Amino acid sequence: MAPIATTLESETGRNASVGALGKTVSGKKLKIREYPKFDSLEKERLYRKQHLAAAFRIFAERGFDEGVAGHISVRDPILTDHFWLNPLSQHFSQIRVSDLILVNEDGDVVIGDEPINAAAFAIHSEIHKARPDVDAACHAHSVYGKAFSVFGRELDMMTQDSLRFYKSHAVYAQFGGVVLDREEGKRIAKALGNGKAAILQNHGLLTVGRSVDEAAFWFISLDKTCHAQLLADAASAGSGYKKIMIDDEEAVFSYKQVGTPEKGWLAFQGYYDEQLAKSNGSFLQ
């Protein structure tokens, strides 16, 4: 079936790209917010660190923490072969900007006083090398993500939200234990390819993005999509009803509305605002 929905004919540029409709009764154009433009790399570094710290808090609230497992990285805009990570022993819910660790491409700590997760370095270093278009990566052992990962399969394109990952996710169908070897990191990066997400079989989920905001939102959405599919599969098996899939033509059309980097960044902003209000900005310290 051909797509029925149409584009916003009255909108152009940024508004149209994210599905925003903005005009007052007086005819004034209203613009949706977008990734800021910075007059210095130092200011962009601070922005990235602030949003990285917020992402950890948001992951903690959604139960994506489990002991010291899980990590999020963001590329440094000044030292572009370096990236910022969380300290190994600190809970996601407590991470502040000042706690973040800057590491180089050899895994040496450049800024910070705490060790990092060896698995985090093995995975993230190879992703940042293989994907110069990507500035952030998220990995965690979320409940629905790791439950779905045991099937070693891609998602079914059966809901609008699943279309964020249409032909943009892969399965790494190999479990080699805790990832401590950079060669394993290279294999994961190869499996990820040019996509935004990978399901690591018997392990968990991995997402990437041009910003930490985008990567974090893809992770939140991917875990929810795994949850929805687990529920739908169980209901189908129990009731005998057949799941109805979205065809390729509709999926291609919808992906351009829900799966772009701009939409991923924008979708995270509400979570950031909520965290800022609830914590009184404590993560900014």
Could you walk me through the main structural features you see in this protein, from its secondary elements to its overall organization?
Strand 7 (about 195-200) and strand 8 (about 205-210) form a beta hairpin. The radius of gyration is 19 Å and the shape is globular. The longest helix has 28 residues, at about 210-240. The mean pLDDT is about 95. An eight-stranded mixed sheet has the order 4-3-2-1-5-8-7-6, sandwiched between helices. The protein is α+β, with helices and mostly antiparallel strands. The protein has helices at about 15, 40-60, 120-130, 145-150, 180-190, 210-240, 250-260, 260-280; strands at about 70-75, 85, 100-105, 110, 135-140, 170, 195-200, 205-210. Helices cover about 40% and strands about 10% of the residues.
Set out the fold topology.
Elements: H1 13-17, H2 41-61, E1 71-75, E2 83-85, E3 101-103, E4 109-111, H3 118-130, E5 136-140, H4 143-149, E6 169-172, H5 182-192, E7 197-200, E8 204-209, H6 212-239, H7 248-258, H8 261-279
Parallel strand pairs: 6-7
Antiparallel strand pairs: 1-2, 1-5, 2-3, 3-4, 5-8, 7-8
